[in-house]
């Protein structure tokens, strides 16, 4: 099936139509579909594209991951990467590595991906790195929550939904279950179980993430995190908008974090309309829900951070709704219109920031109430 689909793509690129449609059906592939510049791939909503087990490949990528491509659209279909049968390998260069993402776009300018479902990928479902003018929309994820037949949890094992870095990025209407961040943005770097990948760290700007709905799978296992932003090595991410994130998670609804003690910064960040709390309590990972606040800010510097319209219903844990660690500084912080309902906990249910460097602070419209729920 791989050769048939790739031949169709190559023929459409050669004859100038620059569009290939995958009809309804089941397609087993053993190598990634390679998408050239100025090309649109559309899969029927009943097309099921499955990656062969243990082939350690992507489902799809742009053709030139050395010099990059432009003007690529990938729409439709249901895609399955057969997650934990794949083995990923990180090497010195991107082109030499087998990251086992579902879809991988590197150095692409003007990229659209959407209207699809992605199941069970070993690493990130959709990865875009060093890409500009990106629109990812209307994607549902259903990752496999187990690493083996013994039902060992796969949470925290790099099962992100959409992850990337670039300028002028819009991510919207994303839902479902993932083993890590449903949405993640990284200013380069990006890690796999503590090992840095060979993406260079750089500044990015103009990133909007909206209408994000993390879900549980099997009615009991939540996505690890909703939306996470990461910086590395003194890089800055500017003009960030996060709005309408709704759903409980294992660790955090929203997280900002500079990893590996290489502090970066964020400029002009706006977060609004967040509803959820940390709910996970599996015996083997009992500490996950109390690792972070529901909205957590770690080892990062902000010039302006505005947070509004946050709702939390808490029945189990007493960790803070907003948490700023001692390595975080915010020059101008505004928090408004927050409602926290809990069943009777002691502690800092609203905000924890005893050692953070907070400058100008405006807090208004805060309601914390006890209820039998």
The CATH superfamily appears as Single-stranded right-handed beta-helix, Pectin lyase-like
Kindly state the percentage of residues in helix. under 10%
CATH architecture field: 3 Solenoid
Number of domains: 1
Please compute the radius of gyration using only Cα atoms.
Answer: 21 Å
What name does the CATH topology carry? Pectate Lyase C-like
**What is the overall shape?**
globular
Compressed to H and E, one letter per element, the order equals HEEEEEEEEEEEEEEEEEEEEEEEEEE
What structural category arises from helix and sheet content? mainly beta
Distance between the termini: 54 Å
Task: Provide a brief overview of the structure.
This protein is mostly beta strands and 373 residues long.
Task: Describe the protein in words.
The chain has one helix spanning 2-15, and strands at residues 19-22, 25-29, 33-35, 39-51, 60-62, 69-80, 103-106, 108-119, 126-142, 162-177, 181-186, 189-192, 195-199, 204-214, 216-217, 221-222, 225-231, 236-246, 252-258, 264-275, 295-298, 300-314, 322-324, 329-342, 351-352, 357-370. With 373 residues, the protein is mostly beta strands. The chain is globular. The chain has a single domain (2-370), classed as Pectate Lyase C-like, CATH 2.160.20.10. The protein contains one helix and 26 strands. Helices cover 4% and strands 56% of the residues.
């Amino acid at each position: 099936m791989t050769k048939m689909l790739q031949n169709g793509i190559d023929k459409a690129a050669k004859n100038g139509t620059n569009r290939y449609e995958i009809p309804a059906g089941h397609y087993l592939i053993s190598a990634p579909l390679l998408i050239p510049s100025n090309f649109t791939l559309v899969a029927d909503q009943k097309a099921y594209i499955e990656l062969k087990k243990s082939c350690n490949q992507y489902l799809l990528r742009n053709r030139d991951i050395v010099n990059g491509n432009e003007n690529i659209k990938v729409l439709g279909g249901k895609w399955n990467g057969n997650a934990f049968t794949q083995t990923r390998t990180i090497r010195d260069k991107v082109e030499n590595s087998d990251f086992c993402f579902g879809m991988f776009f590197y150095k692409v300018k003007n990229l659209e991906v959407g209207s699809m479902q992605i199941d069970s990928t070993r690493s990130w479902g959709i990865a875009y790195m060093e890409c500009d003018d990106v629109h990812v929309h209307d994607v549902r994820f259903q990752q496999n929550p187990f690493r083996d037949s013994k039902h060992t949890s796969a949470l925290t094992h790099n099962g992100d939904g959409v992850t990337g870095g670039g300028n002028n990025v819009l991510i919207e209407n994303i839902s479902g279950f993932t083993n890590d961040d449903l949405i993640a943005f990284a200013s380069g770097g990006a890690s796999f179980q503590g090992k840095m990948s060979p993406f260079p760290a750089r500044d990015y700007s103009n990133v909007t993430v909206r209408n994000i709905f993390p879900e549980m799978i099997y009615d009991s296992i939540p996505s690890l995190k909703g939306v996470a932003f990461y910086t590395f090595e003194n890089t800055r991410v500017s003009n960030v908008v996060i709005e309408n994130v709704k759903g409980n998670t294992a660790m955090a609804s929203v997280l900002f974090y500079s990893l590996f003690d290489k502090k970066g910064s964020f400029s002009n960040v706006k977060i609004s309309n967040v509803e959820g709390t940390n709910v996970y309590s599996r015996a083997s990972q009992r500490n996950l829900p109390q690792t972070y606040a529901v909205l957590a800010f770690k080892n990062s510097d902000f010039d302006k951070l505005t947070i509004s319209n946050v709702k939390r219903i808490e029945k189990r844990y007493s960790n803070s709704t907003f948490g700023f660690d001692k390595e975080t500084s915010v020059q101008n912080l505004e928090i408004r219109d927050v409602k926290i309902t809990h069943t009777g906990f002691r502690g800092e249910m609203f905000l924890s920031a005893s050692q953070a460097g907070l400058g100008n602070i405006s807090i208004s419209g805060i309601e914390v109430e006890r209820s039998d729920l």
